[in-house]
Amino acid sequence: MIEINKVPSPCFVMEEELLRKNLSLIKSVKDRAGVDIILAFKAFAMWKSFPIIREYIPHSTASSVFEAQLAYEEMGSRAHTFSPAYTHENFPIFMKYSSHITFNSLSQFNRFYPEAEKYDEKVSFGLRINPEYSEVETDLYNPCAPGSRLGIVADLLGDQLPEGVEGLHFHTLCESSSYDLEKTLEQIELKFGHLLSQAKWFNMGGGHLMTRSDYDVEHLIKVLKRFKAKYPHLHIIMEPGSAFAWQTGILVSTVVDVVENKGIKTAILDVSFACHMPDCLEMPYKPQIRGAYHEPVAGLPTYRMGGSSCLSGDFIGEWSFDEPLLVGDKIIFEDMIHYTIVKTTMFNGISHPAIALWTKDNQLNIYREFDYQDYKSRMS
C-alpha cells in the first residue's frame, strides 16, 4: 500500500504489484486464446516501466512517429502503427520503426504503398475498416459515428483487397465488454467476411477492458477461439491500452485553498483538470476520490474540486466528506494512470505532476519530476 506521506504533490503513482496483476491476466488471455495482445501507447506510455511490461508482453502499437520510435527504443521491437494520415515527411520514419502499418483510407494506401519498395525494412500493410457499428455511446469516443473520418466503409472496398494489403484493422470499442466485441465481430463478418479470407492478419484494436473486475474473461476467450476456428489462417492481434494500467495507481494532490461563492465551496488543488485530467472535462466523467462520497450527502461538508489553472471551467464537482477540508489536506484521485498521464499538457505554464512507482518492496521510485526547462523546451 502506498504511503501517501512519502509522495510529493502533485504526483502520479503507479503500484507495481497492481500492474503485474493486470499483466498476468492479459498474458493469460493471450496464451489461452492463442492471440497477440500488444500495448497501445495512446493509453499508457510510462516507458521506464517497460522492463516490467516486457516480462509479459513484448510488442506495442503506435499512432505517431514519437510513439513508434519509443516502441523501437524502449520496447525493443518495431511498432504496429496506425495513423489517420501519413505525410511524405513522416512516412520514412514510420517505415523505420514499424513492423505493421495500417492505412486509414484507400487514398493514403495508394499514395504511400508504392514508396515501400524504396526502404530496406520489411513492413506488412493493412487497412482500417469501419463497420458502421459501435456500442460506444459518447460521440467523442465513437469512431463509427455518422460521417466518421476513421476507417473505410464496406461499400468502398469491393470484393478484393488491394494488392499489397495483408491485414485488416478495426477499432470501435472503448472500455467495452467481451459481449460488445462479440456483437461487433458479427457486424464485421456481415460486411467484410469475404475480405477476411484474403487477409493474413486481423487487428481488433483496443477498448477491450479485460482487467476490469466485472469483465467476463472466459467469454472473451470463447469469442476469440470461436473466431480463430472460423478463420484459422488469420493472425489475431488486440491492442488494448487502458486494460494494462486499469486501477494501477493514483494522482496525489493537495488542497491549497478553499473558496466559497453563492453557497458553493470549492477546494482549489495543486493540480488542474484541464492540464492533468482532461478526460474529466472531455468525456465528461467524475473520478473517484479516496475517502469521499462520490455524490453529495445532505448535512456533510460538500465541495467542488477546482484546478489551479485560470480556466474558469477548470473544476469538477461535487463530493462530500466526513470532515471539512483544510489547506494541506491530500486529495487522492483513484485510477489515474491510463490515458490521464499521456494526455496531460503544460497549458497555462502549470507543471506536470511527478511520475513514480510504488514498488512491491514498499519503496517510492520517482521516475520523473518536471521543472521550468521542461515547460520551456515544450514551448520552443
Question: Can you tell me about this structure?
Answer:
- The chain has 380 residues and is α/β, with parallel strands linked by helices.
- The protein folds into two domains: 4-12 and 249-336 and 344-379, Lyase, Ornithine Decarboxylase, Chain A, domain 1 (Beta Barrel), CATH 2.40.37; 34-245, TIM Barrel, CATH 3.20.20.10.
- The chain contains 13 helices and 17 strands.
- It has helices at residues 16-33, 50-54, 65-75, 91-97, 106-112, 154-157, 178-196, 217-230, 242-245, 273-276, 278-282, 340-343, 372-379, and strands spanning 11-15, 36-37, 39-40, 60-62, 79-82, 98-103, 124-128, 165-169, 201-203, 235-238, 249-261, 264-269, 302-306, 315-320, 330-334, 354-358, 364-368.
- The strands form two sheets. The protein has a nine-stranded parallel beta sheet.
- Strand 16 (354-358) and strand 17 (364-368) form a beta hairpin.
- Helix 7 (178-196) runs parallel beside helix 8 (217-230).
- The longest helix has 19 residues, at 178-196.
- The protein is globular and about 65 Å long.
Highlighted features:
single chain, 380 residues, alpha/beta, Lyase, Ornithine Decarboxylase, Chain A, domain 1, TIM Barrel, 2 domains, nine-stranded parallel beta sheet, 13 helices, 17 strands
